[in-house]
Amino acid sequence: MKLLVVEDEALLRHHLYTRLGEQGHVVDAVPNAEEALYRAAEYHHDLAVIDLGLPGISGLDLIRQLRNQGKSFPILILTARGNWQDKVEGLAAGADDYVVKPFQFEELEARLNALLRRSSGFVQSTIEAGPLLLDLNRKQAQLEGETVALTAYEYRILEYLMRHHQQVVAKDRLMEQLYPNDEERDPNVIEVLVGRLRRKLEGDNGFKPIETIRGQGYLFTERCR
Predict the structure, then answer these.
(1) Which of 98, 103, 160, 204 has its CA at 20 to 30 Å from residue 77's CA atom?
(2) How far from 63 is each of 31, 73, 74, 92, 225, CA to CA, in Å?
(3) What is the DSSP letter of 164?
């Protein structure tokens, strides 16, 4: 998933960028609200992590502006303020959850995963589509009970397509799931990865879940639950 992290403390911002990247996410990590608004306008994000104590435009005002601009992705607040009034104010501004500093990364990760699941319409840590099962915690796929050997990039594409099942997903959106920088993106790579996914998932049982929509992108045709 592509995450927007807004944190002015450089060390914590770097820590979040590194740890979330290790969990398979592509991360835009910025130090202030102004840059966050620019990134949110230019790129698609699946979730934002926002510190309340930002310089200039506050985290609360940033959340309000994002919501006023129609950004519907989940927002998790990071705050050093532990009193209930600040939490209520943050949720009222449009946030979906909060974590109080200092925090354990495992808690943050669990809350982010829960928000991502709910925003995709799933409540469990697995996604099923016919004979295919995706374990979101283990980052693993099984086909008819057998583990499918996927590379990290193949898994990211499959997870994103299944989270957006029965929707056409553009190549550009898939490239954002793999590469943080524009200059690294190559649509030919997506074609190669999707081709490899098809060969690993399609079998004699007629299961062919990924369809190419010419000129638009890819469609995961099976209903996921």
Answers:
(1) 160
(2) 15, 11, 10, 10, 30
(3) T
pLDDT in tens, 116-150: 999 999 989 999 999 999 999 999 999 999 999 99
CA–CA separation, 141 and 154 (whole Å)? 10
| Separation of CA 44 from chain center | 10
What residue has token string 């995706």?
134
Distances (CA, A) of 168 to 99, 115, 156: 34, 22, 16
Please say whether the dihedral angle defined by the alpha carbons of residues 86, 88, 92 and 96, taken in this order, is positive or negative: positive
Q: How far apart are CA 173 and CA 179, in angstroms?
A: 10
CA 167 – CA 220 distance, rounded (Å): 7
Q: How many residues in total does the chain contain?
A: 225
Euclidean distance between CA atoms 133 and 123, whole angstroms: 15
Structural domains for the chain: 2-119 (3.40.50.2300), 126-220 (1.10.10.10)
